[in-house]
Amino acid sequence: MSELYCFEPQPRVSVPIIGSDQRFPVHRIFCVGRNYHAHAAEMGVTVDKSTAQPFYFNKHPSAIVETGSTLAYPPETANYHYEMELVVALGSGGFRLGAEQADELMLGYAAGLDMTRRDLQQRAKDSAHPWDLGKDFEQAAVIGPIRRKAETGLIQTGTISLSVNGDVRQQSSLDLMIWTVAELIADLSRYYVLMPGDLIYTGTPEGVGPVTLGDQLSGSIEGVGEISCTIGDARVSAHKERP
Ligand code: MN
Prior knowledge:
Layout: E1 14-16, E2 23-25, E3 29-32, H1 37-42, E4 56-59, E5 64-66, E6 70-72, E7 80-82, E8 84-90, H2 99-102, E9 106-114, E10 116-117, H3 118-127, H4 132-135, E11 141-143, E12 147-148, H5 149-152, E13 159-164, E14 167-173, H6 181-191, E15 199-201, E16 209-210, E17 216-221, E18 225-232
Parallel strand pairs: 3-15, 5-11, 6-18
Antiparallel strand pairs: 1-2, 3-4, 7-10, 7-16, 8-9, 8-15, 9-11, 9-12, 13-14, 13-17, 17-18
This protein binds manganese (II) ion (MN).
């Protein structure tokens, strides 16, 4: 017997899997705050792994948008940034795992963009407020199709890059992550019961910057895949979304 709802629920958010008719149903989105030294430095911070712990923020699954999309320039920002990231897709869950157990949770990998309203994030930082307004908004989590780990093997190194209108803005190597993917999964599993369907955006390398109307973003992660999107007009009409 199906549930009765007072209006039609929003559809399940999912991501295509390369070489499969099955899609990956998204449960949660975790994002890692600072995971490359050179990016931490450009944000004015140094990270000492011997004393620091990774930190996280979340995006709602409804923020997912597939590669190839046009992103509406988001409201209430004048400094809309790209952050190119490796995304890890969990196919099974776990709690209080060791890093040596973490690899088993991964179903695969995707290229992702953690789109950010940098001015709102900075305002939040300055006020010691949560980052949600800067990070969690419509179309803020761009993702390419998931490539299965069975096909790629463990992704621990390789080039990650992002171009805007053909000019390379970010180029780094996955082995420069401060915390490895396995360490991130193990650490997250201290705080959450990880579940199949969870996505982890593993942090961006240096070179983040603003985009404007008409910009074409194109990213690549060696061994994983490509991602692209276009920056479109802002939504202008003030209207009520129908339920
Ligand atoms: Mn990020």
